[in-house]
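Q: What does the assembled structure look like for these inputs?
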Amino acid sequence: MEHSTHSLPGLMTRTEAELRQVFLEQVKAVPAGERIRRCIQCGTCTGSCPVSYAMDISPRQLIALFRAGELETIMKSRSIWLCASCYACTTRCPAGIKITDIIYALKRTVMEKRYNSKAHHVQILANLFIQNLMSYGRLHEGTLIRKYYLRTGFTKLFGFVPLVLRMIQTKRLAFFPTKIKAHQSLSRIIKKAQEIEMRHLPEKLEYSPDFVGYKGIGDLTLEPRKGGNA
Amino acid sequence: MKYAYYPGCSLEKTQRGYDESVRAVFKALDQELVEIEDWNCCGATMYMSVRETVSLSVSARNLALAERTGLDILAPCSSCFTILSKTNRILNEIPEMHRDVNEALAEGGLTYGGSTRVRHPVDVLMNDIGLDTLKSRFRRSLSGLKIAPYYGCQIVRPDKTFDDREDPVLLDKMFAACGGEVVYFPMKVRCCGGMLMTTFEDTALKLNRELLQCAVDNGAEAIVTTCPLCHFNLEGYQDRINRVFGTTFRVPILYFTQLLGIALGLSPQNLGLDSSFIPLGDKITTLAEAHYA
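A:
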């Protein structure tokens, strides 16, 4: 199994170097993303996180591992997928680090590099959600949940029988999706937005062994130091 | 006042109790709600990017539709509220993004100038209409009912909106004014796990078990919510929580507008109280029907 084996600063496996490149681009897109280098490792994030107990790598450790050049380890963890984006850590971080947005950047890094050969459940759900929105313009929860469990383990669907019956009884089950009238127009908006998105793909950062530690982040001067939206 | 009403996807059917009670409460307070014509899904948190033109355009379509009417948006679902607010903030802060989004919207014959305000019913009821007006309209006292107001994440975080991020109090004040007994509920802003109930069920069940336990330990007879996802996790999965953890919870989960509607003397039929999965219990049922018995 390929795993980061470097022990000397500045030496990285090829995968690690590629991952860092993508991740740094993603961080660059996060407003105030460069504040990641102000981490004092106090652990307020981990202490505030309602799901850190179930993580294999805590939020504080994520930043420590990134600093140590161990992105590969982070990418293999379940932690980033467990984040429900409740923003408790971001609200409390004494260094003003946008931890939730950093975790989003990590998720996007994994998805962009297709690092996990087997798509994670969260990615499946996200993709089905987007499909659902594209087809109808509104979310149909029934379709989303059914398709999700068909992809990830259909036997679980049987467990939902009592709940579905209860929903029917209380007139809370929408049997069919609602499709908006301006569906065509929404599709055109989405298509155009995708085109615009492609125009703005971030410039590839030139790879440097200095990316280890905070060096790579040091070049990101998107936001004045005094810091905009806290 | 008149508002551009944005119910959002969950309120269409699955959470009809929220939709019906918001409409009833606003009507009773002489506020007019005009549903945004042909609104689309806000995109929720599923679009993950911060600078993504697609997700911002999808959500901005609704802001543009509302702008045509010149009305503030009223968005009861916490997730819709936070996504629409966030889109508004980003478009107002980053001119290039605003330009890109307008270029996309033009394909649908729309344009967004940036003037729509996004409001949550808690904010409007407490800060615009105000507690004094509400008090003058109360017809039934919730006296003796022990209530745990649960705010969840998204109406208070990540940005500071209309209440404190760690210890919001507007719902506490609202229900204390109704004569209810608001119990100590330190988990009022603790996350319910949201969609983790689908992707990491074990973890989400534990989170919701802790919320229910905390409310019950402090004597709550009902939990009031502001978010369809919190509501569904606490209500729809309560049986499963009992099965997995060997607990015996039977806590009615109500939308804050349902309980407020009871205090305002509205008919239970108009508040969607019949949509509850869990029996409301004698106390709430008696209160709700008192006026009409």
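The domain at 14-118+207-218 of chain A is CATH 1.10.1060 (Fumarate Reductase Iron-sulfur Protein; Chain B, domain 2).
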